[in-house]
Amino acid sequence: MAGAGRAASEPRPGRRLIHRHSAVVRVTHWVNVVCLTVLLMSGLQIFNAHPALYWGQQSDFDHPLLAMTAEEPARGVTTVLGHRFVTTGVLGVSNDASGQPVARGFPGWITLPGWQSLAEGRLWHFFFAWLLVANGTVYVLAGVISAHLWRDLVPRRGEWRLIGRTVRDHALLRFPHGEEARAYNVLQKLAYLGVVAIVLPVIVLAGLAMSPRLDAAFPWLLALFDGRQSARTVHFICAMLLVGFVLVHVLMVVLSGVWNNLRSMVTGRYAIEDDGHGQ
Amino acid sequence: MASDDKPRAPGRRAVTTAALGSLLLGGCDRLAGNPKVQGWLGSASRLSLLVQHWLAGDALAPEYTEADITRSFKGNGTQDPDDDEYQALAASGFAEWKLLVDGLVARPVQYSLADLRAMPARTQITRHDCVEGWSCIGKWTGVPLAEILQRVEPKGAARFAVFHCADPMENGNPATKYYESIDLIEAVHPQTILAYEMNGTALPVAHGAPLRLRVERQLGYKMAKYVMRIELVEDFRSIGGGNGGYWEDQGYAWYAGI
Known about the structure:
Chain A is α+β, with helices and mostly antiparallel strands. Chain A is built from 9 helices and 8 strands.
């Protein structure tokens, strides 16, 4: 809840603790961390059962958009849009728990479970998919009712022209101080809004479009993604976008004050300096 | 049909132990191997069944055009049953083959391929989605299962149709023959057919000759190939491993609409 700005205590002069994140935001954030971690790892397990992606309704086995294959002797090859990359050790071929090279799309250390099991990967994936949707529903309802989404995530009219400057500040590791640190900057808003309003809804819809029963109930799901195999590809691309988002997000959290950021997402309290830097 | 990568219990402990490279991953795998945890996770599958049944009702699976048919439809699971009895039937073009329909029915019967071909038929061009993730489109012709159920008159207690197949799944061992089950709601859905033709010709052996099940709103492993017998039951817990199908006994969900 950036910008709520109610002073809490005075730990030391020039530094104030403000109330930054509501309880709903904090709880749903950490539930999301668990859900996305399990969904990514079990999703890669499911992908490994047929490590190839296609476009359209069906699988054109001879022309995948992306494929991870194993060649003799023990060479992993990843093909992306017709370009071959040797990825032995990570993609296509990686070592199993006993150190033996095996044919696998993604390596065991990043899948759930670590051993090859499509059945168990699906169990994990669907349980946490339900949890993700329930959690997201709570977040969006609370965000709409409290106006958090509108107030804190949607960029203001004047903010759009600040994008260039904000990108430069981030690149130089200059983060906002003082009053400016109360609210999300425009890059944060766009990143969070993009994930909340675009990537997560699209990944859920693409997941639903892979269900043959839901394709019967809602044929528009297939039309939306141009087919079931494209839905699977979009689902995968969205997962990679989320991975990219999380990497940048965690990097920014670390660079802009890891303890302050972590405390704000656990207790809600965020310290801002009153020294006027960055004004 | 179903995936070839089977979860194998023997190596599991060794794999789990060795995977303790990091505390987190080790913890994950230990949790993943716990049957109680798996039971918990499985509750999501029952929720999916309830919600999807409510949302979809009798809705038909999308049907496609001749132009959409996959040129090389992937054969998966068993491609040629390792079973003497089946091979003898195949050698004579399935002339001696009979489908037995029994269990909780008023009138158990046996049908030859000619009997089935004489019944009302339905042709549908549908998408086959394998649990592994790939999809192929094929044209299927066969008898709606509802036609057969109407003739054998299921008793009131019947809740599931169990399909007993000719193909042993493990080294020709007849005790491991493929089987599957669907509920009677799915059984009378208009697109649930017993197909004897694929893409306009007799069903090839790789795709389940002489007769395979099509359940178009679920994944491939539900669509039993090489069907020999349909048994109507109240409960499938006493059949096979008790989970309603060969792959279900290996840990896959009974409901495969997702």
